[in-house]
């Protein structure tokens, strides 16, 4: 099984890490970093929020969402081109196919994380210690992969890759907006704050900011969300793979 995963991960990386996709992985988060930086810098500073520490984790969360979209796109493309049918006829498990896809996506996630951390350092973003920096990367990638499993389900049920992006974006955008990714919880109306606090994006982005600043992190919510999403979406994705055709 390990050899199967290694071979298919290499195949996925060769397909998804083209020059064009690498340029997109670098340029897209930088554009959002600059755009949101211009819009939010003064607003956050006026509220006493340290802009340089607040924004990079937010953009990284967005970048992880783009990786989720690519997961659905590449799986849908494989389904359209008949690769999923070929995989199903081979003596390999559906889990191997999904793990290989996630392995390639984990590598893709590292590119925008490195880009945004570097851009953040220019405006004053800092990690308090190396251990916190390592945990920061692990948590960000793990969260991306938990959502990528959900995107895999969409990809396995669609044979039109071009329509995948808007579909996944429409699902994730409301969840992203109703979180502390781009605004502190206190900015939201009181009746909406319970929703904001219960949001998986809130749990993870707050953990990322705490890790970067060297603060104590409440590990329960982010780990519960990541593990829960992986378990639920992973189970559905394996069943969808077995039934796809």
From TrEMBL:
The name on file for this protein is: ABC-2 type transport system permease protein
* Keywords, alphabetical: Antibiotic resistance, Membrane, Transmembrane, Transmembrane helix
- Mind telling me which InterPro entries this protein's record contains? ABC2_TM, ABC2_TM_bact-type, ABC_2_transport, Nod_factor_ABC_transporter
Mode of membrane association: Multi-pass membrane protein
Pfam families referenced in this protein's UniProt entry, alphabetically: ABC2_membrane_3
Q: Name one GO biological process term.
A: response to antibiotic
* Primary site of residence: membrane
Specify the domain of life of the species encoding this protein. Bacteria
**By its UniProt entry, which PANTHER family does this protein fall under?**
NODULATION PROTEIN J (PTHR43229:SF2)
Q: Where in the numbering of this chain does the ABC transmembrane type-2 domain appear?
A: 20-244
Where, per UniProt, does this protein localize? Membrane
Q: Which ranges does the record mark as transmembrane?
A: 21-43, 55-77, 98-121, 133-156, 168-192, 223-241
Q: What Gene Ontology molecular function terms does this protein carry?
A: ABC-type transporter activity
The cellular component terms of Gene Ontology attached to this UniProt record, alphabetical and capped at eight, are: ATP-binding cassette (ABC) transporter complex
């Amino acid at each position: 099984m390990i050899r199967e995963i290694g071979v298919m991960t290499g195949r996925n990386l060769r397909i998804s890490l083209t020059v064009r996709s690498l340029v997109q992985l670098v340029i897209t988060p930088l554009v959002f970093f600059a755009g949101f930086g211009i819009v939010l810098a003064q607003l956050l500073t006026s509220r006493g929020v340290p802009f340089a520490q607040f924004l990079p984790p937010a953009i990284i969360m967005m970048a992880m969402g783009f990786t989720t979209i690519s997961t659905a796109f590449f799986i849908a493309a494989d389904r359209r081109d008949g690769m999923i049918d070929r995989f199903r006829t081979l003596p390999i498990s559906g889990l191997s196919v999904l793990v290989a896809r996630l392995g390639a996506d984990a590598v893709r996630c590292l590119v925008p994380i490195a880009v945004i951390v570097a851009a953040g350092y220019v405006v004053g973003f800092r990690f308090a210690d190396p251990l916190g920096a390592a945990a920061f990367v692990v948590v960000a990638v793990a969260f991306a992969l938990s959502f990528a499993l959900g995107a895999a389900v969409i990809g396995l049920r669609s044979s039109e890759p071009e329509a995948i992006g808007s579909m996944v974006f429409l699902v994730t955008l409301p969840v992203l907006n109703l979180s502390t990714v781009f605004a502190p919880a206190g900015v939201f109306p009181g009746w909406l704050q319970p929703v904001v606090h219960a949001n998986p994006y809130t749990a993870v982005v707050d953990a990322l900011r705490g890790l970067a600043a060297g603060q104590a992190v409440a590990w329960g919510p982010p780990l519960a969300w990541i593990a829960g999403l992986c378990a639920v979406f992973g189970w559905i994705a394996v069943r969808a793979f077995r039934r796809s055709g």
